[in-house]
Design a protein that fits this description.
Length: about 170
């Protein structure tokens, strides 16, 4: 699909981050550690700060955000991690998700990481299948989601050195 671009967000993208994050929380509430209601209370300045911090990437169709993903260091797992992945439903299956994972993996490689980890909620079967297609493998470990311990998070990892899919 033409007209799609992926780029790192800046403070100026606070409204874009708000738009795509709220959409993600409405579409897939079990996938995230925060809720739609909590996120409604975040101020414009806080969205700008979030957009300009960390390693946040968004996919755009023209100037409309259609996906997001972040990269960071997960202290408990002592490795780089993929956080907050989402693609708006009408763009799923179009290659946007691969572009976002690639952006985070490229960032992780600049940190000299050899692996990239992630959590995926057990109930998110489509997301799990996508991650497996990208070369992530389940570690066999699970954790309860902090905000809702009834939801289990599967831990998956991808090899960044010998994986040509990301």
């Amino acid at each position: 699909m033409t007209g799609i671009s992926v780029r790192r967000l800046t403070r100026a993208d606070g409204d874009h981050l708000r738009t795509i994050r709220l959409e993600s929380l409405l579409d897939s509430p079990d996938a995230y550690g925060s809720t739609y209601e909590e996120s409604l209370g975040i101020t414009s300045e806080q969205w700008a700060q979030r957009a300009g911090s960390w390693n946040r990437f968004a996919a755009f169709y023209g100037d409309r955000p259609i996906g997001m993903a972040s990269g960071g260091f997960h202290d408990s797992h002592n490795q780089t991690w993929l956080f907050g992945m989402f693609v708006t439903p009408e763009h799923r299956g179009s290659g946007v998700a691969q572009q976002l994972v690639h952006a985070v993996a490229t960032w992780a490689r600049t940190q000299y990481s050899e692996t990239l980890g992630l959590h995926v909620t057990e109930t998110m079967t489509r997301a799990r299948a996508f991650y497996e297609k990208m070369g992530f493998v389940p570690t066999g470990e699970t954790e309860p989601m902090e905000r809702n311990p009834e939801l289990r998070l599967l831990i998956m990892k991808a090899d960044l050195v010998n994986n040509d899919r990301i």
